[in-house]
Amino acid sequence: MQVGLTHYLFLSGILFAMGLYGVITRRNAILVLMGIELILNAANINFIAFSRYGGMQIDGQMIAVFVMILAAAEVAIALAIVLNIYKQFRTVNVDEINKLKE
Question: What's the rounded Cα separation, in Å, for the pair 52 and 56?
């Protein structure tokens, strides 16, 4: 049995669904960020798979590296924001942080 494009797309779809579920249902800000990371990893798998099987040459891999760099920057900034929110409100639950509107 050989691994083909459909296997990669199926894996990517599962990761995307898990990430979307994590973003929609979780109240903890850290778990929401983990869901976003899963969604970005699903996109990376698609880029790599289409690069290999779709004849995109190296373009798909370059885009995937760019997405990984953006994800690393997003994690650094988001964690700084979450730490400041925890310092201010003593919680990281997204539902309990409604005082930011004021």
Answer: 7
Task: Identify the band that residue 89 occupies on the pLDDT scale cut at 50, 70 and 90.
Answer: confident
Residue 99 pLDDT grade (very low, low, confident, very high; cuts 50, 70, 90): low
Q: Is residue 49 part of a domain?
A: yes
The beta strand positions in 1-94, using DSSP E, are none
Give the structural domain span for 43: 5-91
Bigger pLDDT: 88 or 97? 88
For the segment 16-34, the average pLDDT, to the nearest whole number, is 91
Going from the C-alpha of 45 to that of each of 35, 59, 67, 86, 100, the distances in angstroms are 15, 13, 11, 33, 36
For residue 29, how many other CB atoms are within 10 A of its CB? Answer: 19
Does residue 48 lie in a domain region? yes
**C-alpha distance from residue 81 to each of 26, 74, 85, 87 (Å):** 18, 10, 6, 10
- Which CATH number is 49's domain given? 1.10.287.3510
Domain count, the chain: 1
